[in-house]
Amino acid sequence: MADARFDPVRIDVATLVRRSVASLYSHLVTRPTGRAVRLAIESQLLEAGDPSVSVIDFREVTILDYSCADEVVARLTRAYLSDDRPRDAFFLFRGVQEWHREPIQVVLDRQSLAAVVQPVESGVELAGTVTEAERDVWLEVERLGSIEGDPSDHFDDPEARAALARIVERRLVFPAPGGGVHALGALAAG
After folding, report:
1. Which structural domain range is residue 147 located in?
2. Alpha carbon 100 to chain centroid distance?
3. Is 4 inside any structural domain?
């Protein structure tokens, strides 16, 4: 169940493209366009609370090339992983179409990053580089929606506990301030 204190920040990428680069089309096809959109997203995040769950919506984006996927998905993901991140933000990339998947996967793989994506035709999934143990633990958290208390108590296997620590560190789940973890899919739905 989503925590009411963490209303997701919803960001429509197509609207940002039209506003940021004065284009009538929802095409992310040049690095400068991708950079403009990423900067617009970061600007919107300044208004969000800390921590925040940000839903980056690609549903109306008709073309996404590799350089824009790098700017908008990989660079945004990487910037918020570091200890000196601009703020405490978590991301879910919603409305990922079939033609968005390859550029997103490739740019995340190149940098050994991972992100939570929500394809238009199904629930949430992981894109990028993850181990099998990380994927299994992430799927369990998503299935449950959240794990209260010490989430490592939920997993008996030491490898699963280590994978849980890694997906928390990689910001693929949301660590609750009072303990526990929440699935980004559940929080984004709230």
Report:
1. 9-189
2. 14
3. no
Helix pair 158-169, 132-144: axis angle to 10 deg: 80
Q: Which class for 116: exposed (0-12), middle (13-18), buried (19 or more C-beta within 10 A)?
A: buried
CA distance 83 to 141: 24
Bridge pairing between strands 125-128 and 52-57: unpaired
Q: What is the pTM of this model?
A: 0.89
Q: Can you read off the two tokens belonging to residue 161? A: 């506990």
Flag whether 3 is in a domain.
no
> What element of type H or E holds 137?
helix 132-144
Q: How many domains does the chain have?
A: 1
Q: What pLDDT does 146 receive?
A: 94
Does residue 54 lie within any of the structural domains?
yes
What's the confidence (pLDDT) of residue 61?
85
pLDDT along the chain (190 residues), means of 10: 60 74 55 87 86 90 90 94 89 93 97 96 93 98 94 93 96 91 88
- Report the alpha-carbon distance of residue 39 to residue 43 in Å, rounded: 6
